[in-house]
Amino acid sequence: MAADIWTALFIALLAVFTGYEVISRVPVLLHTPLMSGSNFIHGIVLVGGIVALGLATNPAEEAIGFIATVMGAMNVTGGYVVTERILAMFDRSKRKGGTP
Amino acid sequence: MSAWIGDTIDAVYVVAVLVFVLGLKAMSSPVTARRGIVYAGIAMLIAVVVTFFSPGLSNFGLIALGVAIGGLGGWYWARVVKMTAMPQMVAMFNGMGGGAAAAIAGVELLSSLSNTATSSLSVAGAIIGSISIAGSMIAFLKLQGWMPSKAIVLPARQVVNAAVLVIGVASGVLILVTSNLFWLLPFYVLLLLYGILLTLPIGGADMPVVIALFNALTGIAVALDGFALVNGPLGDAGYAMVIAGTLVGASGSLLTFLMAKAMNRSVSNVFFSAFGATEETGVTMKGSLKPIEATDVAAMMEYANQVIIAPGYGMAVAQAQGKVKELADLLEAKGVPVKFAIHPVAGRMPGHMNVLLAEAGINYDKLFDRDEINAEFPNTDVVFVIGANDVVNPAAHRQGSPLYGMPILDVEQAKNVIVNKRGQGKGFAGIENDLFYRDNCHMLYGDAQTAVGKLVSALKASG
Asked: Which sign, positive or negative, has the C-alpha torsion B89, B42, B359, B413?
C-alpha cells in the first residue's frame, strides 16, 4: 500500500532533477513559451479529474469531480493553444526576419 | 482481459511522460520549440483518451460533458484572445489547473478518508491548489485591468494573512484527525481567501515572478494529487501526474528564482514587502525634464551609427509593437542598424517583450538580453526607451534607493537617450527616475502608438 507512495517519491525526485536540467539553460527569449508550455503540461491534472469523476459513487463526489474535469480540460486546451500561438509567432518572425 | 488494457494504458502514460520531457527540452531552442509543444500536445491527447478506457470507470456522460465544456471553452477563449492579453491568459489557465487539483483532492477526501496517507497528501494538494487558483485569479483580474494593478495593502495584513493560513491549515488537519467532513468548508474557504490576500499586495511589475510561482505551485499540487491517487484503484494515472507535476514544479521554481534574481530581490520580498506601495521621498533631482519633438528624434536617429530600442510595459499597453517594427524597418532601410535591449522583467510575464516583438514580426536575432547589450550602450548614438521606467533607472546604482542593486539596462551611457512616456509620472516602484534628468536624455511625451507613429511619418517624409 504505502510502498506505492515511496515508489512515487523516488520517481518525483528524479523528475525534480530532470525538470531542473532540462530548462536550466533556456534563453530569456523563450521564457514565455517555457512557462506557458509547462502550464500546459500540468494539464495532466485532467487525467486525475477523469479518474476522480469516473470512480465517484455519490452526488457530492460527482459534483466536485465534474468541476475538476471542467477545469482540467480548460487548463489543457487553453494552455496548449496559448503556447502554440506564442511559438507560431516566433516561427513567423524567423521566416520574415531581416529587412524586407 | 482487463490486464492487457491496464498494461496498454500504462505504456501510453510512460510514452506521454517521455514526450513531455522531450517537449520541454525542445523549448530551450527557438528552432525546435514549436515542434516540442505539438509533440507534447499529441502525447497529452492520447493520455487523456486512453484514460477513458481505464477499467472500472463510470459516469461517462458526465466525463464527456465536463471535457467538452472545459475543453471547448478553453480552446475558444485562448483562440480569440489578443496576443497582448497573453499574461492574463497564462494566469487564468494556470488557475484552472490549480482549481482542478484542489477539487480532485476534495473528491479523494470524500471517498478515502479512512486512508491516512492518501488523505494527508490530498490535504496538502488541496492547500496548494486552492492558493494557486485564488492567487492566479487575482493576478488575472489585475492583468486584465478589472482590478487596480497597483499593490493593494490592507491594514495589519501580515497578521491577518498568517492567521488565515494557520486556521485554514488547522482545519485541514482537523479533517484528518476527526474524520469530520464539516471541516472541509472552512478549510477550502480560508485557503482560497489566503490565495487572494497573498496576491492583493503585489503590484503589476512584479507579475513575472508571481505568474512563474503560481505555475510552479500548480505543478506541485498536481504532483501531490498524483501521490494520493497512486494508492487508489487506478494508481497509474497518479504516477503520470507525479512526474508531470514535479517536472513543472521544478522548472517553474527555477524560473521564479531567475525572475526574482533579475530584480535583485528575493521571492519572499516580492510576496511580502508590498513593494511599490510607498513612494521614495527626500530625493531631489538636479536638472530638468527636456521635451523633444518627433521630427527632431527622427533626424537624430537617421544619422545615428546605431539605434537601440529598449521596450517596456508602456509599449504593451499601447500595442505599439507594430509601429515599432515599422520604425526599425525604416531605419534599417536607411542603413541604420537597430537592436532591441530586453530586460528579463520588462512587462508583465517572463519574456513578455520577446513575445510582443515576435508578434510584430521582428527577427529574434535582433533581440538582446541585458548582459549581452549593456557593453554596447557607450558606443551607441541613440537609445530609444519606449514605456520602460524602473528597468532603466540609474537609481539602481545609488545606495539607499529601493531599487538599489537591481541589474538594469545602462542606457544612460549612450550619447543620446530618448524616453517615450505618456506623462511625467513615476514608475511602478514609485521612484523618481534619475535618467530623465540627465543632460543626454530627452522626453518624447505621448502614447507609444502615437509617438512612434509620428516618428515613422517623420522618417518617411525625409525620404
From this structure: positive
Residue B248, C-beta contacts closer than 8 angstroms, at least 6 positions apart: A19, A38, A39, A41, A42, B215, B216, B218, B219, B222
**Separation between Cα atoms, residue B43 and residue B113, nearest integer Å:** 33
Residue A99 above 50 pLDDT? no
> pLDDT category, B280, cuts 50, 70, 90?
low
pLDDT value for B410: 93
Contact between chains at A19 and B89 (C-beta distance less than 8 A): no
Binning pLDDT at 50, 70 and 90, where does residue B462 land? confident
Q: What is the pLDDT of residues A11-36, one digit of tens each?
A: 999 999 988 888 777 877 788 888 89
CB B238 within 8 A of CB B228: yes
Candidate from B86, B231, B351 with C-beta closest to A30: B351
> pLDDT band at B283, cuts 50/70/90?
low
**pLDDT for B178 beyond 60:** yes
| pLDDT greater at residue B347 or residue A63 | A63
pLDDT at A100 over 50: no
Burial of B3 (0-12, 13-18, 19+ CB in 10 A): exposed
Decide if B105 contacts B172 (C-beta within 8 A). no
Report chain A residues whose CB lies below 8 A from the CB of B83.
85-86, 89
Q: Does B223 touch chain A (CB under 8 A)?
A: yes
Q: At residue B442, does pLDDT exceed 90?
A: yes
Range in B29-33, B195-199, B318-322 with the lowest mean pLDDT: B29-33
B55 at the A interface (CB within 8 A)? no
Nearest to B448 by CA among B260, B301, B315: B315
Cα separations (Å) of B279 from B208, B283, B401?
22, 11, 11
Which CA distances in Å does B97 have to A7, B100, B132?
Answer: 24, 5, 9
- Partners of A82 on chain B (C-beta within 8 Å) are 78, 86, 89-90, 93
Average pLDDT, chain B: 89
Select the more confidently predicted residue: B383 or A3.
B383
* Whether the Cβ atoms of residue B208 and residue B142 lie closer than 8 Å to each other: no
Residue from A7, A28, A89 whose CB has the most chain B CBs within 10 Å, to mutate: A28
pTM for this model (two decimals): 0.88
CA–CA gap between residue B127 and residue B195 (Å, rounded): 10
CA distance B115 to B231: 9
For A64, the grid coordinates are 466536485
Task: Note whether B97 contacts A43, CB cutoff 8 Å.
Answer: yes
From B60, which residue of chain A is nearest by alpha-carbon distance?
A54
Burial letters for B280-304: b for 16+ Cβ neighbours within 10 Å, e otherwise?
A: eeeeeeeeeeeebebeebbebbbeb
The verdict on a CB contact (< 8 Å) between B229 and A48 is yes
User: ipTM score here?
Assistant: 0.91
Say whether residue B227 is in contact with chain A using an 8 A CB cutoff.
Answer: yes
Written as one string, the DSSP assignment of B26-82 is: HTTSTTTHHHHHHHHHHHHHHHHHHHHT-TT---HHHHHHHHHHHHHHHHHHHHHS-
Determine which one of B225, B390, B410, B434 is catalytic. B390
